[in-house]
User: Fold this.
Amino acid sequence: MKNLMATIFLHSQDIFLTPIYLLIVSFIINHYSKSKTKGRLERKYFLIGAYSRIFGGLSLGIIYEFVYQGGDTSAYWLYGTRITDLFLQDPLIGLQMLIEFGDKYSPEVLRYIYDIIWHPNPTEFSICILSGLIGIFSFKTYSVITIFFALISFSGSWKMYQTFTFLYPEQKKKLLISCLLIPSVIFWGGGMMKDTICLGALGWLFWAFHMGLIEKKQIIKSVIIATVSIYTIATIKIYILLAFLPPAMNWIFLEQIKKVKNKSLRLILAPFFISLGLIVATLGMTNLTEGDERFDIDNIGERTKINQEWLSGGVQTGSAYNIGKLDGTLNSIIEVAPQAVVVTLFRPYLWEVRSPIMLLSAFEATFFLLYTVYLFITIGVLKTLKLIFSKPILLFSFVFCIILAIGVGTSSGNFGTLVRYKIPLLPFYLSALIIMKSHIKDKQKIRKG
Assistant:
């Protein structure tokens, strides 16, 4: 795989077609921003977010070509060109492949895809298919396909931004940074990668849950978007969904409790609704993972142990970390959970840096650590916890981040993979910190007044 990316950006079609497609995409983005955004400021933020994500995706391609000399992104492109060729040569077989996706492929389809090593694995093969479908109208050009991957990612991040700013409109500028401008999210969430598609789907799912189940608006649209998003995440990285569902269901039920005007009735209903939310989420998680060798509840401890050993054992660059011993049981995951949260949110430390890309992650982690400590000191530990539990959106964000941090922190084993695995939680974590700070300022204004 090392030389799969070699000279991709030097191909004449990349050099020639990328500026043309950028002009076309820029025209569409500008037209959309004029008609769908509210006011000049929001339009400005939309454009900043879109162009920065495209820049991040193209940058990732360049880094993988000249620094890593290949990687998963190159394989997704290479195998994607095979899918493109299939659709151009025999569209009916191509449609048959899409219908059979995730099941056993017929001999007619296997004749075309047998040598694509990922075809038995829906997780990776789905990205190859998406790359191939985009390749049909982009002349199989790596950089052009990347632009469309980046736009998918941005679309979800923009819906996430809209949801947070709907709840906290006075924090639009700061939430722009948390939802759209975190450097590692721009870089790792913009390229031709699994993380890019999951990030986009997660943002849409967050919007659909809020709009359809809490605001009870655009219900049909929300249900369709939620269904597509859940299917996408479940196919590619189901563990993100497992981290999202329990706090999301809890968030929905807590918001319903808030609408009950009678305080005594709220206190009575709260335990019932919270328990109901957790039961629904648990049943959903169990059904989603039943029979899955990687994430079935009965197997998750052992799979986490194997994954961590494989990733950390194969690293020769000094980027491996150790949070404790995993023996394949859920109890061992629980024991190392605090270390997993710390390593995911606040490491690598600056003195652990071994590469320029790791330096970027270290600066971010240092910022998250200092900002978190600052807020806890300013508010106080008990008052911070009280604030979190009093605001359903804060409780959802922090619980989601903690669950996902435990999952990726225990299974990664090295900072190289961790920086990619954790990007779905970073916008939620920073947004939650920004919202917490806004509540502090509001209380200070009331005291001064």
Remarks:
- The chain has a mean pLDDT of 84.
- The chain is about 80% helix and 0% strand.
- The longest helix spans residues 39-68.
